[in-house]
Design goal:
The complex is a heterotrimer of chains A (331), B (537) and C (324). By secondary structure, chain A is of the alpha/beta class. Chain A is built from eleven helices and twelve strands. Chain B has one domain: MetI-like (MetI-like fold). In chain B, 76% of the residues lie in helices and 1% in strands. A two-stranded antiparallel ribbon of chain B has the order 1-2. The N terminus and C terminus of chain B are likely disordered. The chains are: A alpha/beta (331), B mainly alpha (537), C alpha+beta (324). Chains in contact: A-B, B-C. The interface between B and C is large, with 35 and 36 residues. Chain A: InterPro entries: ThiB-like. Chain A: This is Thiamine ABC transporter substrate-binding protein. Chain A: One of its GO terms (molecular function) is thiamine binding.
């Protein structure tokens, strides 16, 4: 009997914490990598009177699908972390509500997903080929084509686009670069040149790559433009091999506290938050005129001419491309 | 509690059936409902037959079951010598060994995956099987060891006296007596292996896929809910088939055994037993290899040895990339695991008693409940997690975002373990022992308290320790739940592992070491506990 | 202070284990339920204890129907064939169990434990582990445990049958003495008639779910109710009463009914000879029929004279023939 009571009590406890919504609480739904400096967040909460409750889980894909599944009754008020790969789906499913943020034209508009004004670019995290400069001293590749050079046979390690977000970005980059008709040929040659495919970034970067602390065997890896900022000059990103990934935030359709959610969105696009995204999340601020940390300016500048694909093109082609890639590279 | 029993058997069957509603209700609300909801959602989109008839699908099924079966066999074979040592040997430092065996269970799959990749850089089937077995040796060692520690030694001695060689006596007497525990452990291990995710992803080298990884990809990356639903149904069917087989095997085996106290049975190994001890030692060494590897990585930098990773644990990371410090994350882990273990113990022990009661009163619901309780282990975490999203808002206070959802989801995984550890011992208790207590004036509740509880006390404590550890290391279910940001150690480790930079990596490995220390400390502490009013048993 | 079993019927599915059985046990009386295995005697005992549900009939104590009284409130002690001691408690802990349930003060409890252990001859065993006791010792502890709370009725289910023969005979005598000393009202279930006759004031013979005969041991032994009962009580040969000089239609002969004695009136030839523990068992041909007999050493083929031992006879009341 006592056990039944205990379970009932546990359930009741769970419920009771929920039943009294605070008037100025905003629930921010994000992916696992979201991070904000506590002082910055505290200051915002103090000055605005809004309490931000973070709900974090999974990666960008999981986040997007969660938002889609719960669009009738959203689990929060605004979301951060839907990226350019998944933006189309979220928009198509009507997950986000329109909001013309006063902060949106301070640079974020440069990376917009579409013209609906529902998603606002918070940061940019380009995926680029990284190299171990020590291992390749005086013999560095520069472009996609260079990677086909027999000099770099068995040097490159990439992530599986089916299971890894940077892996997919790199594939999309080659599609943007060589076109719908040319990318398969490029990959055929890459395969002939001994490209190694692993399933995730962790294996590729921390285990296979010679420039990281794992000191692996391969000096060329698919990672982020920002990665060299953490490697004290031992690595660098090849800025001609980058694919642009943008992370968006938006107020959720059906948000219970849309008014305060909009203020939180303004905060995400605002100067104070933008100034710390580089250090917190290894991404570049979307806002113009925000200074990068010193180590970034030297080791990890923002790529100027990255490859890009329109979100709806990605949405339509992704599954087919990944399937073709699978047959081509693994088959 | 004293009510007239006009129709004793029928009445008690009714009572037990009603009691079964509690664990069944828990399962229904926090498992069946969300899973069915998400599958129904997929089915509505159609395209199921396509997935069912594809040769690809059946290859997936074959590989999933095959690798799980192989890993189960490896785990059982390597787990038995360890179980023997834990149960039967009087050796110094046994307590620490018992705790250390649990360590693999809490290690994040990404860390273990990377450790195995160090030996097999290209991945493959063998490392997948070995890594899955690595995680699960503890299940076998602990579950089987729990029963072994209490089974009478005399039957074995009798067989030896009748001229059976030691291996022969083991095969013909000991093994059949342990069969229920081995069956229980094997079923659990099989389910863990069949649904293992990270290991297959990392060591499959993008080549080998299982139902679990495919369900994840279809649900999360492709948003192909109908394909995922089809695969989930297949996974369901396969799991139920395996569970029924296991239940059949168990039914034939589980009998009353003369239970004895461990103190009377444990002794210093003699003669050939040292070979078994050596085998157990080899297994433990093998289990420790990745552990040693990660400790080395937590200490090494480009410029030599350093404790920087450990120092960083007190902070929120190199540039404050974590929202909490490593120490706070450890506390979060402890809190969540405590909640999960408490819920799982309540539901699990209750279920075990209901199962016994149902069986005694001859009800057929017993088998069904037994199987149902195991199901959560065999169903994809992503299916459950996404299922929560489309159902839990119907519970009061929007349960989807409740801080209690994480421990509840973990309890779902821990409960079957508790049941499997407690049930064999409980079933081995002679019914007449309870009747003897009743004739001496003990009412049903008192019988439970005076007879059942002390007799299963040790395995209950073991189950609690085990459940706690599983909850500590649980990452799959946790990572799919939209949870208020109170990251646990596994979450923090995953976050650190996904960042570049030597210090992040060092800190990740240091966090693993912290997780191991916390694990060992907790297991040691829990096992020190004695169930009140029970003598040394 | 008496037990009354009224028209109890217990069925398991199709089979009827206990079939309309009635039996009374008076205060201080020891009744043995004697019958072959599977006759329903244990089921009846378990029904009295409250461990089985009767499909029909009632168990009454002092006239009160016990049907609605659960096991633990009946105040009946139960001793199983194999003790069923609590393995997690020592000897004293086992004996104290019922006293604790009855909330007896610790001091009184300790005294009572000492008393009972002395009674069963295990003085000083208080802190032994029960798993380290011999079978006989375990049964003694079980008995002490059952007796400790002074049950209204003691139920013993084959209390000695798990023990070896010599121990069994010894313990049967001890148990009989103990039950008398304790003044216990008891129902003993056994398949061993020696045990039943040693322990009981009255014996109830049970077969195929029914009680066939109830009476004092000597009466049941001398005058079984029917041929089946006589067979169960050791008779393997049935002859007309005239054969042994009685007026009855039929008399059952046990192996000890005929004894070689020069003074005997019967005459036969020895066919076979087997040495037993304390006598020689013979197969003798008398008037073309074979009979068992006991006697001093003789050679096969010897002619011998035989006397009839009254103790080896079972006198059957006249009834329609059959069943042989």
């Amino acid at each position: 009997m006592r056990r039944i009571v205990l379970v009932a009590a546990l359930l009741a406890a769970g419920c009771s914490t929920q039943t009294a919504p605070k008037s100025h609480e905003v629930t921010l739904v994000t992916h696992d990598s979201f991070a904000v400096k506590q002082e910055v967040l505290d200051e915002f909460q103090r000055t605005s009177g809004i309490t931000v409750k973070q709900l974090a889980s999974g990666d960008a894909g999981e986040l997007t699908n969660k938002l889609v599944l719960t669009k009738g009754n959203p689990i929060g008020d605004l979301a951060f972390g839907v990226d350019s790969t998944f933006a189309s789906r979220a928009l198509q499913e009507g997950v986000f509500a329109e909001y013309a943020s006063p902060e949106a034209d301070k640079g974020a508009q440069r990376y917009k997903a579409d013209d609906t004004g529902k998603l606002h670019a918070v940061d940019v995290g380009d995926v680029c080929v990284n190299i171990d400069t020590g291992a390749l001293a005086g013999n560095e590749p520069k472009s996609y084509e260079d990677l086909l050079d027999p000099k770099y046979k068995d040097k490159l390690v990439v992530e599986n686009p089916a299971t890894s977000s940077p892996g997919l970005a790199f594939l999309l980059g080659t599609i943007a670069k060589f076109g719908e008709n040319g990318w398969q040929e490029y990959w055929t040659k890459l395969k002939a040149n001994g490209v190694k495919v692993v399933s995730g970034w962790e294996e590729a970067y921390t285990q296979e790559f010679s420039g990281s602390s794992g000191k692996g065997p391969r000096p060329v890896v698919v990672s982020y433009a920002s990665s060299p900022s953490a490697e004290e000059g031992r690595t660098k990103a090849l800025l001609d091999t980058c694919y642009r990934q943008v992370e968006y935030a938006g107020v959720l359709q059906g948000a219970k506290n849309a008014e305060d959610a909009r203020k939180v969105l303004d905060f995400l696009l605002g100067e104070k938050f933008q100034a710390q995204v580089a250090e917190q999340m290894y991404v570049y601020p979307s806002r113009e005129g925000v200074a990068l940390p010193e180590s970034w300016a030297k080791a990890a500048p923002l790529p100027e001419k990255p490859q890009q694909l329109a979100p709806d093109k990605v949405r339509d082609g992704r599954e087919r491309w990944v399937e073709q890639w699978r047959t081509l590279v693994q088959g | 509690m004293a009510h007239p029993r006009s129709r004793l058997n029928r009445r008690s069957r009714l009572n037990w059936t009603l009691a079964a509603l509690l664990p069944l209700g828990f399962l229904a609300v926090f498992f069946a409902w969300p899973v069915l909801a998400i599958i129904t959602l997929g089915l509505r989109e159609g395209g199921i037959s396509e997935a069912l008839t594809s040769a690809d699908t059946w290859e997936l099924v074959a590989f999933t079951l095959g690798q799980a079966a192989a890993a189960t066999v490896v785990a059982v074979i390597t787990g038995l010598p360890v179980a023997f040592v834990l149960a039967r040997c009087k050796i110094r430092g046994l307590g620490v060994l018992r705790a250390a065996v649990m360590v693999p269970f809490v290690l994040p799959t990404v860390v273990v995956g990377l450790a195995f990749r160090a030996f097999w850089p290209d991945g493959g089937v063998l490392p997948i099987v070995l890594a899955n077995a690595f995680f699960n040796v503890a299940v076998v060692a602990r579950t089987v060891g729990g029963l072994w520690a209490h089974t009478d030694r005399r039957a074995e001695d009798a067989a030896r006296a009748l001229g059976a060689s030691r291996p022969r006596a083991f095969l013909s007497v000991v093994l059949p007596a342990l069969a229920p525990a081995i069956g229980s452990a094997a079923a659990v291990v099989f389910l863990f292996c069949a649904t293992s995710f990270g290991v297959v992803l990392i060591l499959g080298g993008a080549r080998y896929r299982t139902l679990e990884t495919e369900i994840y990809l279809r649900t999360v990356e492709l948003f192909d809910l109908s394909g995922a639903a089809a695969l989930s149904l297949i996974q369901f069917a396969a799991v139920i088939a395996v569970l029924l087989l296991g239940a059949l095997a168990r039914r034939r085996r589980e009998t009353a055994l003369a239970l004895k106290g461990r103190e009377e049975l444990a002794r210093r190994p003699t003669g050939g037993e040292w070979a078994v001890v050596a085998a157990a030692g080899a297994v433990v060494l093998a289990l420790l290899t990745p552990v040693v590897g990660l400790i080395i990585r937590s200490l090494s930098t480009r410029d030599g040895w350093s404790l920087a990773g450990y120092r960083a644990l007190a902070t929120t990371g190199e540039r404050g990339t974590l929202s909490v410090s490593g120490v706070e994350a450890a506390l979060n882990s402890l809190r969540t695991a405590t909640d999960a273990t408490a819920i799982a113990l309540v539901v699990g022990v209750f279920s075990a008693f209901v199962l016994i009661g149902l069986k005694r009163s001859g009800s057929r619901v017993s088998e069904a409940l037994d199987t149902a309780l195991m199901l959560p282990l065999g169903v994809s975490a992503v299916t459950v997690g996404f299922g929560y999203l489309v159902t839990m808002d119907a519970l009061p206070g929007d349960f989807r975002t409740s801080p209690l959802l994480v421990p509840l989801a973990q309890a779902l995984v821990v409960t079957p373990l508790v049941v499997r550890m407690v049930l064999p011992v409980l079933r081995a208790v002679d019914e007449r022992l309870r009747q003897a207590a009743a004739t001496l004036g003990a009412g049903p509740a008192r019988v439970w308290l005076e007879v059942d509880l002390p007799l299963v006390g040790r395995s209950l404590v073991a189950a609690a320790g085990f459940g706690f550890v599983v909850a500590l290391g649980e990452f799959g279910a946790t990572s799919f739940l939209a949870r208020p940001d109170a990251p646990t150690l596994p979450v923090v480790i995953a976050r650190l592992m996904s960042r570049p930079g030597a210090l992040n990596s060092q800190m990740a490995y240091a966090a693993c070491a912290l997780l191991m220390v916390v694990t060992i400390a907790c297991v040691l502490l829990i096992e020190r506990l004695r169930v009140p009013s029970s003598g040394e048993f | 202070m008496s037990l009354r079993i009224e028209h109890i019927t217990v069925r398991y599915g199709q089979t009827t284990a206990v079939d309309d059985v009635s039996l009374d046990i008076a205060d201080g009386e020891v009744v043995a339920l004697l019958g072959p295995s599977g006759c329903g005697k244990s089921t009846l005992l378990r029904t009295v204890a409250g461990l089985e549900k009767a499909d029909d009939g009632e168990v009454r104590w002092d006239g009160d129907d016990l049907t609605g009284t659960p096991v633990h409130e009946r105040g009946f002690g139960l001793v199983f064939q194999d003790g069923q001691l609590f393995p997690h408690r020592d000897v004293a802990g086992n004996v104290a169990f019922g006293l604790r349930m009855a909330k007896v003060d610790k001091e009184v409890r300790l005294k009572r434990i000492d008393e009972l252990l002395e009674l069963v001859g295990l003085d000083g065993y208080q802190h032994r582990k029960v798993t380290q006791l011999s079978g006989g010792e375990q049964q003694r502890v079980a008995l002490a445990r059952a007796l400790a709370p002074q049950p209204r009725l003691l139920l013993l289910d084959e209390p000695l049958s798990a023990l070896d023969r010599a121990l069994r005979e010894q313990l049967a005598v001890d148990l009989a003495r103990l039950l008398r000393e304790a003044g216990a009202t008891a129902l003993v279930v056994t398949h061993d008639h020696d045990e039943a006759f040693t322990l009981a004031d009255r014996v109830a013979i049970m077969r195929k779910g029914k009680i066939r005969q109830v009476g004092p041991p000597a009466e049941v032994w001398r005058e079984p109710a029917d041929v089946e009962t006589a067979k169960f009580l050791g008779c393997n040969k049935f002859v007309p009463g005239s054969f042994v000089g009685l007026a009855n239609d039929r008399v059952g002969l046990r192996a000890s009914a005929l004894r070689v004695d020069p003074a005997g009136t019967l005459e036969g030839v020895v066919l076979e000879r087997v040495h037993r523990r304390d006598h020689v068992r013979l197969l003798v041909e008398i008037d073309g029929d074979e009979y068992e007999a006991v006697g001093p050493v003789t050679e096969i083929g010897d002619r011998v004279r035989l006397v009839v031992e009254q103790d080896g006879l079972a006198v059957l009341r006249d009834e329609p023939h059959g069943g042989q």
